[in-house]
Predict the structure.
Amino acid sequence: MNNVQSKARITAIGTYVPEKKLTNDDLEKLVETSDAWIVQRTGIKERRITSENEFASTLALKAIENLVEQYQKDLSDVDLILVATTTPDYVFPSVACQIQEHFNIKQVGALDLHAACAGFTYGLHIANGLITSGLQRKILFITTEVLSKVTDYTDRTTCILFGDGAAAVLIEKDEEMPSFIASHMETNGAGGKHLYLTNLSTTMHSSSLSTSGKLVQNGREVYKWATRTLPKGIEELLKQASMPLGEIDWFVPHSANLRMIESICEKSGISLERTLTSVEYMGNTSSVSIPLALQIGINEGKLKNGDTLLIYGFGGGLTHAGHIIKWCVE
């Protein structure tokens, strides 16, 4: 949203993760791996996974309930429910429609968007645009993922990574204290073959795909793309905002892999001590990882109102998007 003054503010946040833990010791019983091997390569110690009867909608409802409980927000006048997920309960009806039914919110639009691990930053971009344009006034935006249900637990390169969770934020019209300072998004569709989950089509660029119904990732290629792409995106955001890096209080990237984050920070001149992550005990939760990191930052007394954040999501597509925002929830 270059040169467009935002009129939208993030006013509340809520999160939820399943109770069931999957530790590195548990994974040692499933595949040839070890706690030391996993931590050395990813920084992950454990992740949360859903039970058989928990789905994306289940987690989403609990994250919204957590938001309402923490901030005493009224949802009755929400005019759009927006959900980012790659693992919806159904192709349709959408998770957003299920949320509308559960909370019985009247006269509201509802849709899911699909931007993989960049879902949170893409969704914020859309919500900011809709509110700033005057089309909406109050948007309930949820990210929810149950990646454990599409993870191949015989593939030791991917099963060590993924966890489940959900987060919700409320975005409202506020011309006096808008959250959004700068936004940047790009796509590299040619890299789609490096991270996919098949649906109706079983080929891509005339090449056959794995049709197991499980997520497939070329970790090496995704790693190279992310560590090359994000430093440029970060530079573009700072340039757009006319802001030196020193004015950023917290860097909050998608928590894909702690080693990847370390590389991005090193290339961008960002201190790890000023970086918020969720990957260590939650695993890679795709679109949910950034808001989980924000909530952890709040819980630990690090993230405070008035802080300036640089958040950046990246993932399947290959998609990536970032924002510089002023944090002020109430």
The two ends are 25 Å apart (CA to CA).
